[in-house]
Amino acid sequence: MTPIEIGIASVSVMLVLIYLGIHVPFVLALTSFVGVWLIRDNFQIAVYMLSQAAAQSISDYVFAVIPLFVLMGMLVSAADLGRDSYTVANRLLRKLPGGLGIATVAANTIFASITGVTIASAAVFSRIAVPEMLRFGYDRRFAVGAVAGSSVLGMLIPPSILLIVYAIVAEQSVGDMFLAGIGPGLLLAFLFSLGIYLTAVLNPKLMRDAAAAAAAPDDEPDLTLREFAEKMGPTLVLVVAVLGGIYGGVFTPTEAGAVGAALALAAALLRRRLTWRILWNILVETGYISSSILFIVISATMYSRMLGISGLPTQISTLVSGLDASYLVVLLIFVGIALVLGTIIDSVSILLITVPLFIPLLQPYDVSLVWFGVVAIMAIEIGLLTPPFGMSCYVVRSTLTDHAVTLEDVFLGAAPFALIMLLVVGLLIAFPQIVLVFV
């Protein structure tokens, strides 16, 4: 077999093994090792090259940003800042049709700006927002769908773990990726809110008792400035410190992660939400999530180097150039692959598998890799809401104590939000300035 044929075979074998249920990092490492062995026809060379990939892939200082931001997200969750965000948004928006749903999106937007972890958002708001919406008579599918759908904002609005991983893999500035995520993130939050509002107006049966509750006399007083400061003060401090520090050139992203984690720890301690057992559980969970991401990065680096040795990306790039296809065709192919892979594997794995293949294809078209990164992440995130994988939907269902809500309810409720995300992907492709307006 030629190196090109081995590269094609390795991609095919990888997809088959993933569909069989084998964990992605093991599949990537195994196919990469065997691929290099066959291409070089030397076992020792394969061992050496892949061990070097493992040693070098996460040795860079910038990778320390991943556990720091994960830790910050876990501490923010423990400090109940998500609950406070929802309380404030609910008090401000409760009179609107679909106000609780819009409040969920607004609170998730705020929470996303201090966590960057979709799973954390899904878990927090499943406990806070779903019971409240059900109490006011919202349809259960709508309630769980609103939480699952809006949780994806955590991977787009900075600081985002996925934006950081893409920046590292594509060798782009983390600060630029954060800036690029602001416009699309806010646009997605606005369209989610608009969709909820229109649903409430056009199909009030989904919120049959909520409309009556909104029209009834409100015994709860309006939110005072002092209450707003008490509930949102820690969140605002975190946002200003982390994002302001990065954009103002005061901190590197890694240092900003450390500052954010320290401030989140202080907030949890001051609110007396932290015990030794909770802190230990947070540290263990942080280690688990971080090691999982970094193991995938190591395996994906091996995979990327094996593809480079095979010459497959260059060959595909030459073939696409020969077809005289527009970059739009390449993008549509990427979006299609991302949607398919989103049904079986997680977002980080999809990003690390596809980006090494598609960046060489896009380079001849002189497109912005920052823009492509945001488009890619938006397309990949749709997989969080689609069966059978749908990680956000699984987290929402597993967090709920109401067993009347089924996994089918969550997926069906999240479907309109997935369609809105697909619409936003089209808008980002048609109008790149949405992504690049702040960069």
Chain-wise SSE layout:
Blueprint: H1 3-19, H2 24-40, H3 43-57, H4 65-78, H5 81-93, H6 99-112, H7 118-135, H8 140-151, H9 161-170, H10 174-202, H11 210-215, H12 225-247, H13 253-270, H14 276-310, H15 312-323, H16 327-341, H17 347-362, H18 369-381, H19 391-399, H20 407-430, H21 433-436
Helix pairs in contact: 1-2, 1-14, 2-3, 2-14, 3-14, 4-13, 4-14, 5-6, 5-12, 6-7, 6-8, 6-10, 7-8, 7-19, 8-19, 8-20, 9-10, 9-17, 9-18, 10-18, 10-20, 12-13, 14-17, 15-17, 16-17, 17-18, 18-20, 19-20
Question: Can you characterise this structure?
Answer:
With 439 residues, the protein is mainly α. It has one domain (3-436). 76% of the residues lie in helices and 0% in strands. It contains 21 helices and no strands. Helix 2 crosses helix 3 and helix 16 (327-341) packs antiparallel against helix 17. The radius of gyration is 22 Å and the shape is globular. The model has no long low-confidence stretch (mean pLDDT 83).
Q: Which descriptor suits the 3D outline?
A: globular
The chain-level structural class is: mainly alpha
Based on DSSP secondary structure assignment, what is the total number of beta strands?
Answer: 0
Distance between the termini: 46 Å
Provide the residue-averaged pLDDT: 83
